[in-house]
Amino acid sequence: MKFRFKAACCMITLMSLLFGAGGSALTSITFQTSLQQEKLAAQQSYRMILNTLQVVNSMDDWKDEKQIPKILKQLSTQGSYWAALQLHTKAESLYSEGGAAAYFIKLYDQIDTTHLACAVITTPDAHYYLQLSGSFSVDKTVYYLDAAYDITSIFDARKQQQDIYMQIFAILLSACAFFSYIFAFFLTRPLARLSRASREIASGNYTYRSRIKSNDEVGAVSRDFDQMADNLQASMEELKDSMGRQNQFIENFTHELKTPMTSIIGYADLLRSETLSKEDQVDAANYIFSEAKRLERLSLKLLDIFVAEHAELALAKSCPAELAGSLVNHLKPTLAQEHISLECNCELGYCMLDTDFFGSLLVNLIENARKALPHGGNILVRTEMSNEGCRLTVADNGNGIPKESLAHITEAFYRVDKARSQAQGGAGLGLTLCAEIARLHHGTISFESVPASGTTVTVDLKGGRI
Description:
Layout: H1 3-59, H2 67-77, E1 84-88, E2 93-97, E3 117-122, E4 128-138, E5 141-150, H3 152-202, H4 217-273, H5 278-310, E6 316-318, H6 320-336, E7 340-346, E8 351-353, H7 355-371, E9 377-385, E10 390-396, H8 418-423, H9 430-440, E11 444-450, E12 454-461
Parallel strand pairs: 7-9
Antiparallel strand pairs: 1-2, 1-5, 3-4, 4-5, 6-8, 9-10, 10-12, 11-12
Helix pairs in contact: 1-3, 3-4, 4-5, 5-9, 6-7, 7-9
């Protein structure tokens, strides 16, 4: 059963219980009030008869009990208030008038000379009477007087009220069922949209949103659902991008392996054929050696990236200025042979670093800057302390990087100038490793470059400041 039907049924049931209880209580209270009023009026009339009999008795003592029925008959002929009258002692009946007298109940045990007894009697013809019974004494003889007052109209009125109530109840129940379903339909329609959104997303349509605009709980659920769908879509797109990068990585890696392997296999086959001169054999061996070293560098770079991606940082209190200064002093003589000036401008201070990764980061940035200076130039290494760690900057005045390449230079195997990179032995993995090391230190790496003017690489390392 749909939720809207359940909601409608609940509203109908609640209305039925409340209206049924309220209507029954109202009818019962109205009936009891009318019955009580009739009882009071009947008791007053009944006491009037008794008082009349006592007044007559006090003015003219009754010497014959047959005078009492005569007085009762005279009183009954003066009006039709009473449906039946009966005078009797415990032993015999002295006077009886009215068909209802045959159905009187003996109430001797409930009355005395000061208290009346009251009961409701029913006749076979579906008439209802209020029986009043009392007693009085004449010459030490106790007489009992029973009187019946017709209250059939009260019961008829109650039945009429019940019939009208049932008709109104049926009309209201039908109206409630109709409007309850309408209200439940509009209240649950957002849930239907939310359900459709979940089915659309489950079928692969990750762009579908419920977009329910309301300030109630359903609106809150819709907003949470749409936010979840946004996150899911972003995750799926990220997964697709990751798969695309992985496929591109495999394609590039295969290409990087294919070229040197083809050369190695070709020259090795020539050496095996023993048809080369001594000079050609040396050239072939040198080519095989250079291509093998290139594969070695490629494998080591890939190993470094793998270690960086899966490593747990061993952060320790370190001085970036000392680490950078030591590496610069070590590399300066080698770069000087290529007419490259390497300088260091470092701010003293301590922060939390993984020293091995920091050294690898700086070496790769300097190596990348060196490749941008084929005819010599200047490289400046600078470290600055920050609130969260330190900032490392490596700047050169080399060839620079085109603007369209800046967004891709941290991708594996990406090269700005493929011919120059292959000639210099590069595989396009250095900056990928640098980006991974920055990520491990909860930092970022950014590039500013002007073609033919130089490049500045800034790395923020946020391992913590001491």
